[in-house]
Amino acid sequence: MAASTYERLKLHITPEKFYVEACDDGADDVLIIDRVSTEVTLAVKKDVPPSAVTRPIFGILGTIHLVAGNYLIVITKKTKIGEFFNHVIWKATDFDILSYKKTMLHLTDIQLQDNKTFLAMLNHVLTVDGFYFSTTYDLTHTLQRLSNTSPEFQEMSLLERADQRFVWNGHLLRELSAQPEVHRFALPVLHGFITMHSCSINGKYFDWILISRRSCFRAGVRYYVRGIDSEGHAANFVETEQIVHYNGSKASFVQTRGSIPIFWSQRPNLKYKPLPQINKVANHMDGFQRHFDSQVIIYGKQVIINLVNQKGSEKPLEQSFATMVSSLGSGMIRYIAFDFHKECRNMRWDRLSILLDQVAEMQDELSYFLVDSAGKVATNQEGVFRSNCMDCLDRTNVIQSLLARRSLQAQLQRLGVLHVGQKLDEQDEFEKIYKNAWADNANACAKQYAGTGALKTDFTRTGKRTQLGLIMDGWNSLIRYYKNNFSDGFRQDSIDLFLGNYSVDELESHSPLSVPRDWKFLATLQKPLRGLLPVGQVT
């Protein structure tokens, strides 16, 4: 069983070394990390000294270099999310960051303070909910991608075969990834959202699963990371897959979301809604084409659903997006603009049916993935809906949940769970599960990008827009305003450090955290590293 990592581990600590012992049945492997030379080697259980201090751990997240030297990051607590085709899925809920160095006496006071700040940044990322893993299943790929693989792929380790877009600890695992013999200790971790439910309709039991995979390319927080980078990676890119498992048959429907894929920014400046700025000198078509070239290769046809306002400050972005699609002239890309706020004003959310009717034929054409209990592929999904609003959060999630329900209706009818003519939205018990799961997905994606729960989740949970929902949206909007202006600089720096977009160099002659600040806005008090990172990471 090549594609698995060790599930049960013990960490033995001595002043000179870390020993990570594999405790799975029949395992004799021990990973040794030298705390002085930082060398990583493989040994056996008899090599662990009896004097070592021992504790259980649930995975190695990886290693990172800070001012004081190297650190080992391990998973210390986990919660079972459920079982996925007999594979257990876990959420990592607590971590420990262990210094290779036994003392900090080699540091100056400034270095000590910097090291403390970098540790706070790592801890900040690790406290954001949504890190998932499995020791036996590849969570980074959709069912359709996994069905279309070679025997060589099946023999690869989980780390080697993972979709690197969704391995959030890829940078932290770089030392282990360079040594294939230790790959069973290297655990790829996903960031996003996973929920699983055992459901029943008409006395027929099926598993319903929702997975959102957040890309680690151009990752960041709301106002600091918008648009695309030169490689064509879009900000807040999330792949969401809805899965049904019934009587051995599996069905899947995949959608994506991502920032409007041109070069634009919207920096916090204490205004409630900063004006979006489209870069006037960048080669938009170059990045735009790179983005959609990769999307078409991975997913097939693209149906873009652009939900931004078609007037006011959002209008230039909508116009630019439409113009770029038209200029590209690809038969694989279709563009639909739907002014969500205009169409649904005065709480007329029933008008979302206008959009669903408009794309119904396209959705039937894109289809979904279905494999029967014998492993035979019945249908492939031929492309995806790529939805966006400004943040790719609130409006986007509402539309995605409606498209996913329509697909699920077709899947459950085909599988024989729903009778002919039966409507999914009339199944009260399942509808409650469905709506709450999609609202939880919205909250997870929003907290990871904007720092608060999602807006408009009253509609996702109940199918209605309510006055209480409006009040809660107002409250969350206020919290977003505060965080975007006064703490998101720190959040962005933390993500860049964690993902390796910024590397600590203890030989720097000055502290990177003591750069002269621009006092023009009070908001700049929050930004310890802004401007020091590579240009591609901060635009």
From TrEMBL:
<feature type="domain" description="SAC">
    <location>
        <begin position="122"/>
        <end position="451"/>
    </location>
</feature>
<dbReference type="GO" id="GO:0043812">
    <property type="term" value="F:phosphatidylinositol-4-phosphate phosphatase activity"/>
</dbReference>
<dbReference type="InterPro" id="IPR002013">
    <property type="entry name" value="SAC_dom"/>
</dbReference>
<dbReference type="GO" id="GO:0006661">
    <property type="term" value="P:phosphatidylinositol biosynthetic process"/>
</dbReference>
<dbReference type="Pfam" id="PF02383">
    <property type="entry name" value="Syja_N"/>
</dbReference>
<dbReference type="GO" id="GO:0004438">
    <property type="term" value="F:phosphatidylinositol-3-phosphate phosphatase activity"/>
</dbReference>
<dbReference type="GO" id="GO:0046856">
    <property type="term" value="P:phosphatidylinositol dephosphorylation"/>
</dbReference>
<protein>
    <recommendedName>
        <fullName>Phosphatidylinositol-3-phosphatase SAC1</fullName>
        <ecNumber>3.1.3.64</ecNumber>
    </recommendedName>
</protein>
<dbReference type="GO" id="GO:0005783">
    <property type="term" value="C:endoplasmic reticulum"/>
</dbReference>
